[in-house]
């Protein structure tokens, strides 16, 4: 693949690429819809990624060729204007955010982009692309790669340029992921901790093959409900509240808003318990927390779907499964399971068959490996 894309690069730009950037997708093990409430999350980077082959330029032109779509997009750094190009906006958004922060984005680059993260599946293909573009700008402008600053700038690009109101989780894990580790992030202080996964376990990604529209409006509605719940207690975010506050919240909020707050508060506590489970190398406890997280997302936060619930149930009924839950924003896309390593292959077969039988749809399951965050290597 690497050689082929290199050839494509040389054919297009008449000179070979100088850098290969690899920027991974992610799954979230636990801590869903907590990041924008300044709570705790525990994602891991996966072994599916966006790849950029680049060559820095001596002028302000950025040329991108997306091999997946056989589609090109170019822009000039000194004439940045918001437009409507589907994936080009992410690149311009990054240019804008980096320039605003560093005040010295002068040079563009030529690039060939290729990715194997399924798009729209909730595996953060957009965060992966943003961080890859961030690396490309750093290399072209001799800026130091600071993974925390870059994650924040990528979130800013997505919020303010692309106008998607996401939290910090996806960009953070895509930037800071480490091989064989999950990342506990405190989305208030942005402190983080790498945690090893339990021995002899595998994380399986289970794509339901369903995609739902209107995810964005439902997502924004959940954010507003969480903000209203925090406001009712005169605090900035739900992060500052705990289980002891639930009775008061119940008297101040309507049933739905209360349920949203209850999910966030209980989910934050589960993430911290999940950290302990990892430190104790206890997949059984970790699995139970995944199941409670799914139930809370389904009943209190109402962001699951029939397909996700079915997938999770089939996984839980299958040999070797410690726990399963939906992952990401919800409404469709992927669930994950923590499974005994020696059962993983059989698990994939059984769950695929059972899901197909029940939903008359072909799911996509694979055993994934916790991977390195966004990185660049020179091409010789
Ligand atoms: C999406 C957002 C994240 C996070 C999750 C839900 O993936 O991009 O910031 O809010 O949903 O946990």
UniProtKB/TrEMBL annotation:
Subcellular location: Cytoplasm
GHMP kinase C-terminal domain boundaries: 275-356
Binding sites annotated in the UniProt record for ATP: 120-126
Pathway: Carbohydrate metabolism; galactose metabolism
Residues annotated as binding substrate: 32-35, 219
Primary site of residence: cytoplasm
EC number: 2.7.1.6
Swiss-Prot/TrEMBL keywords: ATP-binding, Carbohydrate metabolism, Cytoplasm, Galactose metabolism, Kinase, Magnesium, Metal-binding, Nucleotide-binding, Transferase
Domain of life: Bacteria
Short name of any one Pfam family annotated for the protein: GalKase_gal_bdg
Reactions this protein catalyses: alpha-D-galactose + ATP = alpha-D-galactose 1-phosphate + ADP + H(+)
Catalytic residues, chain numbering: 170
Domain GHMP kinase N-terminal: 90-177
InterPro entries: Galactokinase, Galactokinase_bac, Galactokinase_CS, GalKase_N, GHMP_kinase_C_dom, GHMP_kinase_C_sf, GHMP_kinase_N_dom, GHMP_knse_ATP-bd_CS
NCBIfam families attached to this UniProt entry: gal_kin (TIGR00131), PRK05322.1 (NF003705)
Similarity field: Belongs to the GHMP kinase family. GalK subfamily.
Name of protein: Galactokinase
Organism of provenance: Piscirickettsia litoralis
Protein's gene: galK
């Amino acid at each position: 693949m690497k050689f082929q894309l290199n050839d494509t690069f040389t054919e297009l730009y008449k000179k070979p690429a100088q850098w290969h950037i690899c920027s991974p997708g992610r799954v979230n093990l636990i801590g869903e819809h907590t990041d924008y409430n300044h709570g705790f999350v525990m994602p891991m980077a996966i072994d599916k990624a966006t790849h950029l082959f680049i060559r820095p330029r001596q002028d302000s032109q950025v040329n991108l060729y997306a091999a997946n779509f056989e589609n090109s997009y170019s822009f000039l750094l000194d004439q940045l204007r918001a437009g409507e190009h589907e994936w080009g906006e992410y690149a311009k958004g990054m240019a804008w955010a980096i320039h605003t922060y560093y005040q010295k984005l002068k040079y563009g680059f030529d690039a060939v982009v290729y990715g194997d993260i399924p798009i729209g599946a909730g595996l953060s293909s957009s965060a992966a692309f943003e961080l890859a573009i961030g690396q490309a700008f750093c290399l072209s402008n001799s800026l130091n790669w600071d993974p925390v600053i870059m994650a924040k700038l990528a979130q800013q690009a997505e919020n303010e340029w692309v106008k998607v109101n996401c939290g910090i989780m996806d960009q953070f894990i895509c930037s800071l992921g480490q091989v064989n580790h999950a990342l506990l992030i405190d989305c208030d202080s942005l402190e983080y901790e790498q945690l090893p996964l339990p021995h002899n376990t595998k994380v399986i990604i289970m794509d339901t093959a369903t995609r739902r529209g209107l995810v964005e409006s439902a997502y924004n509605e959940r954010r507003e409900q969480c903000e209203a719940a925090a406001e009712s207690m005169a605090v900035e975010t739900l992060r500052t509240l705990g289980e002891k506050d639930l009775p008061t919240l119940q008297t101040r909020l309507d049933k739905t808003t209360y349920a949203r707050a209850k999910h966030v508060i209980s989910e934050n506590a589960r993430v911290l318990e999940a950290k302990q489970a990892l430190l104790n190398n206890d997949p059984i406890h970790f699995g139970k927390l995944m199941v409670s997280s799914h139930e809370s997302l389904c009943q209190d936060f109402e962001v699951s779907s029939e397909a996700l619930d079915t997938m999770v149930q089939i996984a839980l009924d299958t040999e070797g499964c410690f726990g399963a839950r939906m992952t990401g924003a919800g409404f469709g896309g992927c669930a994950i399971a923590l499974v005994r390593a020696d059962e993983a292959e059989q698990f994939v077969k059984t769950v695929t068959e059972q899901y197909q039988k029940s939903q008359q749809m072909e799911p996509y399951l694979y055993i994934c490996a916790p991977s390195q965050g966004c990185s660049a290597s020179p091409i010789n």
